[in-house]
Design goal:
This protein has 261 residues and is mostly helical. It contains 10 helices and no strands.
């Protein structure tokens, strides 16, 4: 059959079929998660995952946001100086961080760190048949493994994004005061006067979708891992790539959605 398919030029349908099966598997996992939501939630597991997702990610999120804000201020300040608009650097930086840079960069960092970790953890349990053992004992792996990680990501990613906003704006403040000769008072006052609640709402609203995508993709790839340690490594790489692309693509459509609201 594969030889006949190649002969008649249908070889290109293999990626389409694989993508369809992958999306179908993700959809089925979402359905199972929604069913598990009606049962008793594991509060202890959720808190443990919140600590893993949030507290252990503080350093990477803070470092990323700090230097992002500093670079944005430096680049925009020098560019705006050509038009005599250098004092407005704070306004542009704040809107950029609140609407786009903060949510997207935080989601990418969490998707790379936490998403890969979730896939590796669940994938290791899958290839060592621990998940099969859970099913044989009447334990639902979706409720024990997937739901706590999904809830933890949905709760913690917006909080981490708020931290990224604050650190990024402070990084821009440092650069503006030391490199662009913009006073700290003017920088902060211009942000307070210009930024609206809609800017914050737009960015934080995206993070809920990003967290959902990261958790579902990471858990699904872990549950589908096979082939020992090599298979777990492939699944982890697949999670990082797929989650990153999904975040970037969905950001465009979510931006259009929130702009229309």
């Amino acid at each position: 059959m594969p030889e006949m398919t190649e002969r008649w030029g249908f070889r290109g349908f293999y990626p389409v079929q694989a993508a369809g099966e992958y999306l179908g598997g993700l959809g089925f996992l979402v359905y199972e998660v929604l069913r598990s939501c009606r049962k008793r939630w594991e509060g202890g597991l959720i808190l443990e995952q919140m600590e893993h997702v949030g507290v252990r990610s503080l350093s990477i999120v803070t470092l990323t946001a700090l230097f992002t804000g500093m670079v944005l201020a430096l680049q925009m300040g020098n560019y705006l100086a050509r038009f005599g608009a250098k004092p407005y650097v704070g306004r542009i930086l704040a809107v950029s961080m609140l609407r786009e840079m903060g949510p997207v960069l935080t989601a990418l960092m969490i998707g790379g760190r936490v998403g890969a970790g979730i896939t590796a953890e669940i994938g290791s349990m899958k290839v060592t048949e621990q998940i099969d053992a859970m099913r044989s004992m009447g334990i639902n792996p979706i409720q024990k493994l997937v739901l706590p990680r999904l809830v933890a990501l949905i709760v913690m990613l917006p909080l981490l994004t708020i931290l990224a906003h604050l650190v990024g704006i402070l990084g821009g403040l440092f650069t503006s005061a030391t490199e662009l000769d913009v006073s700290a008072d003017y920088y902060l006052n211009s942000i307070v006067q210009f930024v609206k609640f809609q800017d914050l709402f737009s960015g934080l609203g995206k993070t809920i979708f990003f967290a959902f995508f990261i958790a579902i993709i990471a858990c699904y790839n872990g549950l589908e891992a096979s082939g020992g340690a090599d298979g777990v490594g492939r699944a982890t790489t697949k999670t990082v790539v797929t989650a990153s692309i999904t975040i970037l693509v969905s950001d465009f459509f979510l931006t259009k959605l929130f702009l229309s609201l």
